[in-house]
TrEMBL record:
Name listed for the protein in its UniProt record: PMR5 domain, PC-Esterase
Family: Belongs to the PC-esterase family. TBL subfamily.
Encoding gene per record: TBL5
Trichome birefringence-like C-terminal domain sequence ranges: 193-475
Provenance organism: Helianthus annuus (Common sunflower)
Membrane-spanning residues: 12-30
Amino acid sequence: MATTLTRAPHKTLPIIFLLLVFLVTLLLFSKRSIDPHLPIYTSTDPYNPLPDPQIPHPDSISTEKPPILEPKSTDLELLNNDSILKNETGFVESESVDQNPFVESNSDESESVKDDDLIVEKSSVLDDEWVKKSVDWGRGCNMYSGKWVRDDEYPIYKPGSCPFVDEAFDCQANGRADEDYMKWRWQPDQCELPRFNATDFLVRLRGKRLLLVGDSMNRNQFESLLCMLYESLPNKSKMYEINGNKITKGRGYFVFKFEDYNCTVEFVRSHFLVREGTRINGQGNSNPTLSMDVIDKSARRWKRADILVFNTGHWWVHGKTSRGKNYFKEGDYIYPKFDAVEAFRRALKTWGKWIDKNMNQNKLVFYRGYSSAHFRGGEWDSGGTCHGETDPIKTGRIIETYPPKMKIIEEVIQEMRFPVVLLNVTRSTNFRKDGHPSVYGKNVTGLKKVSTKKEDCSHWCLPGVPDAWNELIYATLAAAQTN
Ligand SMILES: *[C@@H]1O[C@H](CO)[C@@H](O)[C@H](O)[C@H]1NC(C)=O
Ligand SMILES: *[C@@H]1O[C@H](CO)[C@@H](O)[C@H](O)[C@H]1NC(C)=O
Ligand SMILES: *[C@@H]1O[C@H](CO)[C@@H](O)[C@H](O)[C@H]1NC(C)=O
Ligand SMILES: *[C@@H]1O[C@H](CO)[C@@H](O)[C@H](O)[C@H]1NC(C)=O
Ligand SMILES: *[C@@H]1O[C@H](CO)[C@@H](O)[C@H](O)[C@H]1NC(C)=O
Ligand SMILES: *[C@@H]1O[C@H](CO)[C@@H](O)[C@H](O)[C@H]1NC(C)=O
Ligand SMILES: *[C@@H]1O[C@H](CO)[C@@H](O)[C@H](O)[C@H]1NC(C)=O
């Protein structure tokens, strides 16, 4: 766009021509921004108002190929088996997660203010002993090397029974017929996980605020946790969003209160954990930037929580970071070109410093590791698929895959003073090619033909895989008192 404008003719040409050029480029720009994303997220863009969640979004059946295809991320190839390996397809780090930073609004900023009024009684003496024990156990037991075992008592909540699952993850309601994917329990090799007990979880949360911070993967986990806890409540109306908000991908902040336990479970969206901003370029257009050295605005909310669960990662790709051009920022300096992986490292260090400075021994902080995607035969925007997968992977190279970004997280956590518990779930997710919504991220019941052009092989159906992550959190909390 910039070049078009600078090459625009001189004053001698009619001003109308300039206007035309501008309009055309504007059109191209917004198209480019909207197209290369999964249908479930295009609905959040301000040019394209949020549809009724029951109605399939029209974009979702679009067969148009997006104009820009990203290069494959070779470090993250997750492969189903060796025959697929040879075709050089399979997992490409998803760019399908969450909204497009180009078009994202900060609309959730305005709705937040009231949360200061939220009355959650702090226990006057926070028992930091439980935190210490949780951390010790979380770090001592390797819960992450293990296997999925079939368990007919699963899922923990019935599909369709939970009002907090948004359409994108509500696979059974959307027409998915197979059910086996909900019947797997994660079984560590070296330690026993306690059976999930929602009442007990809530008792342990009494007087506390649990906050999930991150991208739509964490929203996925957040909805799962709400469902797992909701299931156990004898009186369901004693749990509610304090502002009456319904969960949608367009909103960035939710606080659910459990009245009988004086506790909350909250989510705040923060794609990068560091601060997104904008700059005005030479042509007067507003472009996104990311300050690697400044913590995200939502951090003021992080401070108030007692238990925090962070994630980031899926947005650290070319397509979501302006291809690293004039995007990454340090101080006032905007790098003309900067590598997304190095930016990720610096941002996480910023996060680590913030945690070290602002968290005390009464807080329990988790970082939930990278959740793997499974695209077969293409990428998320070019026909990659996981449709028809009904069983976890049993063997193969795919299971060993461990992304470089996870190594960076490990490094950063090791250098920190504050003892963050790494929920190292990546390996467990590698197995679960059967757990994604694929085409069931929207209601396809009754449709004659289901489009397989764009599938969601990044997020997870609920009930499903994120339930296991919450069981790990529960196990960590529960360990504090059984040790
Ligand atoms: C590997 O994938 C290919 C293509 O999806 C399939 O035909 C083949 O049966 C698979 N092999 C194994 C061992 O799963
Ligand atoms: C999905 O669509 C079918 C057929 O149009 C409809 O009967 C069903 O109620 C829909 N399900 C949901 C969860 O909206
Ligand atoms: C779950 O926890 C509650 C509260 O600690 C306890 O009363 C109950 O017996 C537990 N249920 C099971 C099945 O262990
Ligand atoms: C459930 O909770 C609501 C709100 O506190 C209350 O009005 C209602 O009476 C309760 N219902 C039962 C059956 O206890
Ligand atoms: C919860 O908080 C309310 C006031 O906000 C208080 O009256 C009540 O005793 C508390 N309940 C428990 C179980 O701590
Ligand atoms: C892999 O490539 C072979 C031939 O090169 C082709 O027949 C097969 O369909 C491909 N498999 C996938 C999953 O793309
Ligand atoms: C996390 O799990 C991977 C295996 O998937 C392992 O290689 C790595 O060392 C683990 N990291 C930590 C900190 O336990």
